[in-house]
Amino acid sequence: MIHIRNIRSGKPKCFISLGHGSPSGINDMTKVEGSEAYRISGSDPFVMFTLTNHVRTLDASQLVFELNCGEKKEPVQVQVFWHSAGTVLSEANSVRFVTNPGITAIDLSLLFSWAHAGAVTAVRVDFDSPSVCPVLTIQSIPLVDIAKRSPV
């Protein structure tokens, strides 16, 4: 079971970024000229993000991303895959969920496959409902931990 949280007003201050990914590849999507947006053009749209540094899954409990679907505000079905050195992308190393456009934080720490993935090198975000979000922006994927509060 995963915990998904939609965040309304920017990334919470308690999030400590351990690494983030920048778009490194797309499938069944085209870049909208003069913008950061992508237009879905096929049946298997996804964006691949390569991490700036490898992030140990035991250190990073949350994956955060901001999805913008323009004027559309309907929930979007998404699947997130993670890749570690020496592995291939697989359903076993993924999670599927529904989220609303905006900032989403996914707590992956309770997933067995996340906890045992080692160091993540890339993240792929698949969009399973192209008609709901035909033009979208998703610019970076930070892997974060939540700052531990000191005892009072």
Q: Can you put this structure into words, describing what you see?
A:
The chain has 152 residues and is mostly beta strands. The protein has one domain: Jelly Rolls (Sandwich), CATH 2.60.120. The protein contains 1 helix and 12 strands. The strands form 2 sheets. Strands 1-9-6-12-2-5-10-7-8 form a 9-stranded antiparallel β-sheet, with no helix packed on it. Strands 3-4-11 form a 3-stranded antiparallel β-sheet, with no helix packed on it. Strand 3 (29-31) and strand 4 form a beta hairpin. The longest helix has 4 residues, at 112-115. It starts with a strand and ends in a 6-residue tail after the last strand. The mean pLDDT is 85.
Layout of strands and helices, then pairs:
Elements lengths: L2 E5 L7 E13 L1 E3 L6 E3 L5 E11 L5 E6 L8 E9 L9 E6 L2 E6 L4 H4 L3 E9 L7 E2 L4 E6 L6
Antiparallel strand pairs: 1-9, 2-5, 2-12, 3-4, 4-11, 5-10, 6-9, 6-12, 7-8, 7-10
Main features:
three-stranded antiparallel β-sheet, Jelly Rolls, 3% helix
Net shape: globular
In total, the number of strands is 12
**How is the biggest beta sheet arranged?**
9 strands, antiparallel
Rg calc: 15 Å
Distance between the termini: 31 Å
Task: Tell me the strand percentage band.
Answer: over 45%
| Class of secondary structure makeup | mainly beta
Taken together, the total number of domains comes to: 1
H-E order: EEEEEEEEEHEEE
For the record, the CATH class is: Mainly Beta
Flag low-confidence runs: none
Query: What is the CATH topology descriptor?
Result: Jelly Rolls
Kindly report the average pLDDT value: 85
The helical percent reads: under 10%
